[in-house]
Amino acid sequence: MRLVLMGLGVVGKAFLRMLVEKAPELRYKYGLNPTLVAVSDSRSSLYNERGLDPRTVVDWKSRKGSLSGLIDEVDLRGADLVREVEAEVLIEATPSNFRDGEPGLSHIKAALNTGKHVITANKGPLALEMPALIEMFRESGLRLLFSGTVGGGTPFVRFVRSCLIGERVLVIRGVLNGTTNYILTRMEMGISFEEALTEAQRLGYAEADPSNDIDGWDSAAKLVILSNLAMESDVTLREVEVSGIRGVEISRELLSWGKTVRLIASADKSGLRVRPEVVERTDPLAVSGAMNAVSFFTEHSGRHTLVGKGAGGEETATAILRDLVELKMSLSGVSSCS
Ligand SMILES: NC(=O)c1ccc[n+]([C@@H]2O[C@H](COP(=O)([O-])OP(=O)(O)OC[C@H]3O[C@@H](n4cnc5c(N)ncnc54)[C@H](OP(=O)(O)O)[C@@H]3O)[C@@H](O)[C@H]2O)c1
Asked: Is residue 70 part of a domain?
């Protein structure tokens, strides 16, 4: 299976390292022999139809910060590269952009138009155009897989797709952003929002521009993806009511009543919203630190809650690998959803 990888940051590099480490296991267990034929970061691209060495790519990128200077460097970039390369699968790991979905959206559409399956960790294109993309992929017979977009390596997406078959999800409630959860957990311990944010940035939980996390947009994008999948809705980010955690306070009094505050993303028949909510400290959603948790309230089997690390390069790379194995199995006529 020939792969083109767009984005060689934390997730892209972890994915290539994992391809090297797990090559024997992938071959032996699943008959999967992925070959990286093209890769691109924001400024440079490599292409070799006979295959690139993932280890060399990661080492070079880690040392030089770009792919320039490697023997397989080509002038093609972005959607042109995706269109031109002979490959079966696009792995999309460029930054999530909630304004226009670019550059990921163009990469995904270029893959679709040239007969490539897509595995994406990038949630921007799905948050903005998921219903249309799902429809286009369905019509084309190609697969669009996105386990890594929600929950990092925690299989929220796979849980809905595989384990809730035949069940109806009535309500989703979740803590879907580790950065804000870390900040709220530290605020419970008595430090201010600003101090907690600075600490989160120092520890690498929050980006230099933390607004997508703090203002709730990252949670909203993930909620859109889960809601469309679990509740068969057709929504985009525009339909989510969003408020973040700026200005939130967690009083001693509230804590003494056994309650706290979490940034809750919820979907039910009245709509989708992300907002800080008071929750019981014993609620399964009152997770600590950078953890994520999602509860699916179903018609017949009650409440199911999954808890796990919501982010991380390696964690997200495992989700991409999981999708790759699923793709291989589905192309071979084997269902992984049983
Ligand atoms: N990190 C996580 O824990 C995590 C978890 C779940 C999902 N995700 C999602 O996974 C995606 C990647 O995350 P990340 O943490 O790896 O981000 P990152 O470290 O910022 O890396 C982004 C990569 O995309 C490249 N890029 C930017 N514009 C590009 C373009 N036009 N064409 C090709 N490459 C381009 C960047 O190039 P340069 O190297 O040249 O800057 C960089 O290599 C994001 O959408 C993110 O939301 C991340």
From this structure: yes
pLDDT in tens, the chain (338 residues): 999 999 999 999 999 999 999 999 999 999 999 999 999 999 999 999 999 999 999 999 999 999 999 999 999 999 999 999 999 999 999 999 999 999 999 999 999 999 999 999 999 999 999 999 999 999 999 999 999 999 999 999 999 999 999 999 999 999 999 999 999 999 999 999 999 999 999 988 887 789 999 999 999 999 999 999 999 899 999 999 999 999 999 999 999 999 999 999 999 999 999 999 999 999 999 999 999 999 999 999 999 999 999 889 999 999 999 999 999 999 988 765 43
Q: Which long-range contacts (CB under 8 A, 24 or more apart) does 97-100 make?
A: 97/124, 98/124, 98/127, 98/128, 98/212, 98/217, 98/221, 98/237, 100/128
Cβ(153) – ligand 1 distance below 6 Å: no
Our answer on whether the CB atom of 11 is closer than 6 Å to any ligand 1 atom is yes
The CB of 78 under 6 Å from ligand 1? The reply is yes
Same domain, residue pair 305 and 318: no
Using the mean position of ligand 1's atoms as its centre, give its distance from the Cα of residue 93 in Å.
Answer: 5
Q: What is the CATH number of the domain that holds 246?
A: 3.30.360.10
Residue 336 is assigned to a structural domain of this protein: no
Mutate to test the pocket of ligand 1, among 6, 18, 42 (most ligand atoms within 8 A of CB): 42
Task: Work out whether the CA dihedral 226, 230, 232, 233 comes out positive or negative.
Answer: negative
Is the shortest distance between the CB of 160 and ligand 1 below 6 Å? Answer: no
User: Nearest residue CA, atom 47 of ligand 1?
Assistant: 96
Rounded to the nearest angstrom, the distance between the alpha carbon of 4 and the centre of ligand 1 is 15
Tell me whether residue 66 is exposed, middle or buried, using C-beta atoms within 10 angstroms of its C-beta: 0 to 12, 13 to 18, 19 or more. middle
- What residues make up the domain containing 59? 2-153+314-331
Answer yes or no: pTM beyond 0.90: yes
Pair 279, 136 in one domain: no
Residues 129 and 227 grouped into a single domain: no
Look at residue 337 and tell me if it is in a domain: no
Q: Based on the domain organization, do 269 and 163 belong to the same domain? A: yes
CA–CA–CA angle 21, 291, 147 (5° rounding): 50
Strands 303-309 and 271-280 turn out to be unpaired
